[in-house]
Design a protein that fits this description.
The complex is a heterodimer of chains A (358) and B (179). Chain A has 358 residues and is an alpha+beta fold. Chain A is built from six helices and 17 strands. In chain A, 24% of the residues lie in helices and 25% in strands. Chain B is of the alpha+beta class. The radius of gyration of chain B is 16 Å and the shape is globular. In chain B, 28% of the residues are buried. The chains are: A alpha+beta (358), B alpha+beta (179). Chain B: This is Proteasome subunit beta type-9.
Chain lengths: 358, 179
């Protein structure tokens, strides 16, 4: 026999018990044990629903004297097997294909009714990076597309990995977001473990090994740049897990337009302003010549001692200001007569629900 | 035809497995890089275990084992070459998970264009400079004909005295008939 103590809220017993009992515990004002159980007018402590009466299981409740914070602890005693408190089944390694059948069913149901399942949002992007004298400049546009429609006019594609490393992401928006967050988290733990500032090569290794493991199904194409104790580094990482270490890289649907600018004007050991201008121009080439890229230019300048996260750096596509207005001035329509009628409303029911807003 | 573009025109396809063993990558970049990284790691441990430089055959065997085990899933061919005390200079091909020791080996999409050239130009016991010319000529011819090959030539020479890496830039490539 196991007991389960729940405070206010919903408690769900796992399916192993063969009895799915959804219990709602309501908060009561401070009362003693006896009062709470004997008072007929009190709101029900527990409501049992969808329990199987024939299963022979009993759910008994008993109230316990409330604590000073005016809530009531409820002790629930359920006879029979009970595996664990968690709702989800513990996954045991490998991929879980449990939802595939359900998804296939949903898809057929939806298409029968003429609806379409939402598709993964891609960023149709231009991202690029360049190594200059003191560090790295990363650039990105800010348009996110869903098919042929712009889903987000100002999304942030330059993601934080560590204080000295940032990463631009092209491809599936969710994949780039989650992948960079995962590696950022792991890198922080790694950095605490080693006691050192993380290196760009480490982030590169972690990203490439993870993407290779998923054989290209994670659609994340990344431009990783940062400055560490060994100097400034720039990597481009592809969804299948291959990486290139280069002085200038571009990715995304606008990569060819941006690369054209780089191949023309890149020089070794540029100054910061020159590098920023070059990246800005490369992203602008992508924005104006590629349908999947648009809106503004975001830049991130990473040097040994500081980060400049310039969002936006260049508002290349500011919305125009209307030169005229079709609004009519107040008083254009003359008022002829005015009459006010009071409506007779009576209060039928008033329910007051106290909330603990402390 | 799908959108194709050159994403890196200066990729170094020679990967170091150890000080005296290098491998040449071809096929899927991701697969090839992953295999090279794994074998780099395993060879490191192996050479620490054995207390010295590894045999080229050992490195080639490691590459072969991975290539054979994941034959269905991977598209990559690594040519392993190096120098060791027992057999001197060696070249091993690992295509499809097979291990063959060869006097010379060619691989990749551009290799089909130069089988005739390498078969006719190769001679036993060439000098180092002859070998350099042989390799740069062969690669140059392939780069001229194959659309997926081009850029620069990376060359690594491994001898008992050590390893030296060389890059031949576009304007220094040997010139052939090219209308």
């Amino acid at each position: 026999m196991e007991t389960l103590i729940m405070r206010q809220g919903f408690g769900v017993l796992p399916a192993q018990t063969e009895t799915l009992a959804v219990l709602q515990v309501k908060r009561l004002p401070l009362r003693s044990y006896n009062e709470a159980s004997r008072d007929p007018k009190s709101t029900p402590l527990l409501r049992r629903c969808s329990t199987d009466p024939g299963s022979g299981r009993v759910a008994r409740t008993s109230g316990i004297a409330g604590s000073s914070d005016a809530s009531v602890h409820v002790k629930l005693i359920v006879r029979g097997k009970m595996a664990s408190l968690s709702v989800c089944q513990q996954s045991c390694g490998g991929f879980s294909f449990e939802n595939c059948k359900r998804n296939a069913l949903l898809e057929s149901e939806f298409s029968k009714q003429g609806h379409y399942l939402p598709s993964a949002r891609k960023t149709g992007t231009t991202i690029c990076g360049v190594v200059y004298k003191d560090g790295v400049v990363l650039g990105a546009d800010t348009r996110a597309t869903e098919g042929m429609v712009v889903a987000d006019k100002n999304c942030a594609k330059i993601h934080y990995i560590s204080p000295n490393i940032y990463c631009c992401g092209a491809g599936t928006a969710a994949d780039t977001e989650m992948t960079t967050q995962l590696i950022s988290s792991n890198l922080e733990l790694h950095s605490l473990s080693t006691g050192r500032l993380p290196r760009v090569a480490t982030a590169n290794r972690m990203l490439k090994q993870m993407l290779f493991r998923y054989q290209g199904y994670i659609g994340a194409a990344l431009v990783l740049g940062g400055v560490d104790c060994t100097g400034p580094h720039l990597y481009s990482i592809y969804p299948h897990g291959s990486t290139d270490k280069l002085p200038y890289v571009t990715m995304g649907s606008g990569s060819l337009a941006a690369m054209a600018v780089f191949e023309d004007r890149y020089k070794e050991d540029m100054e910061e302003e020159e590098a920023k201008q070059l990246v800005r121009d490369a992203i602008a080439a992508g924005i104006f010549n590629d349908l999947g890229s648009g809106s503004n230019v975001d830049l991130c300048v990473i040097t040994k001692n500081k980060i400049d996260y310039l969002r936006p750096h260049d508002l290349a596509n500011k919305k125009g200001v209307r030169s005229g207005s079709y609004k009519y001035k107040r008083g254009t329509t003359g008022v002829v007569t005015k009459s006010v009628t009071q409506l007779d409303l009576e209060v039928i029911d008033e329910v007051v629900q106290t909330m603990d807003t402390s | 035809m799908g959108k194709q573009s050159v994403v890196n025109r200066v990729m170094n396809k020679l990967s170091r497995l150890h000080d005296n063993v290098f491998c040449a990558l071809s096929g899927s970049a991701a697969d090839a890089q992953a295999v090279a990284d794994i074998v780099d790691y395993q060879l490191d441990l192996h050479s620490i275990d054995m207390g010295g430089l590894p045999l080229v055959k050992a490195a080639a065997n490691m590459v072969k084992d991975i290539s054979y085990k994941y034959k269905e899933e991977m598209v990559a061919h690594l040519i392993v070459a190096g120098w060791d005390k027992s057999k001197g200079g060696q070249v091993y091909g690992t295509l499809g998970g097979m291990l063959t020791r060869q006097p010379f080996a060619v691989g990749g999409s551009g290799s089909t264009y130069i089988y005739g050239y390498v078969d006719s130009a190769y001679k036993k016991n060439m000098t180092k400079d002859d070998c350099h010319k042989f390799v740069s000529n062969a690669l140059s011819l392939a780069m001229n004909r194959d659309g997926s090959s081009g850029g620069v030539i990376y060359m690594v020479t491994i001898t008992d005295k050590g390893t030296e890496e060389k890059v031949i830039l576009g304007n220094e490539l040997p010139q052939f008939f090219d209308d």
